[in-house]
Amino acid sequence: MKEEEISRIIEEGKEKAKFCYAPYSKIRVVAALDTDKGRFWGVNIENASYGLTICAERVAIFNAIVNGAKKMERIYVLSPDTKPVPCGACLQVMCEFADDEFEVVVIHIREPPQVEKYRLKELFPKKFRL
Fold first, then answer.
1. Could you read off the pLDDT of 18-32 as tens digits, one per residue?
2. Residue 106 in contact with residue 84, Cβ under 8 Å?
3. DSSP 18
4. Which of 21, 60, 103, 126 is packed most tightly, with the most Cβ within 10 A?
């Protein structure tokens, strides 16, 4: 993953952040998932009934599944508001569709951007799999 690619993701992510629906937390999160069928985007969508809120990562993954993706390569999780480390629910969903070496790139969009790279096994070492 090159710096040039990170810059492109950040620029497009800034545009996608306009579509986040985060009136409660005020924290916008965008996800870009690279798959065998291309790149799929997601944004967080909150709900007054907090349990019905859905994270950007799951939106991107479900978008990819609906469009026929079978192989998940990496996910970029971006936010202009915080360091957006995926929650446990998102990590569990990632475990359903990706292997332990799946790359998770966390980007806090600020100047300069803060970029951290992980493998799924680092963020979620004790997963539930059948």
1. 999 999 999 999 999
2. yes
3. G
4. 60
Annotated catalytic residue 57: yes
pTM of the model: 0.95
- Which residues on adjacent β-strands are paired with residue 35? 38, 72
- The residue behind tokens 């909150």 is 46
Q: Exposed (0-12), middle (13-18) or buried (19+): which is 118, by Cβ within 10 Å?
A: middle
Q: How many residues does the chain have?
A: 130
Do residues 126 and 88 make contact, with C-beta atoms less than 8 angstroms apart?
no
CB atoms within 10 A of CB 3: 8
Taken in order of first residue, the domains within the chain and their CATH numbers are: 3-123 (3.40.140.10)
- 116, 105 contact by CB (below 8 A): yes
Task: Kindly name the residue from 57, 73, 103, 111 that is annotated as catalytic.
Answer: 57
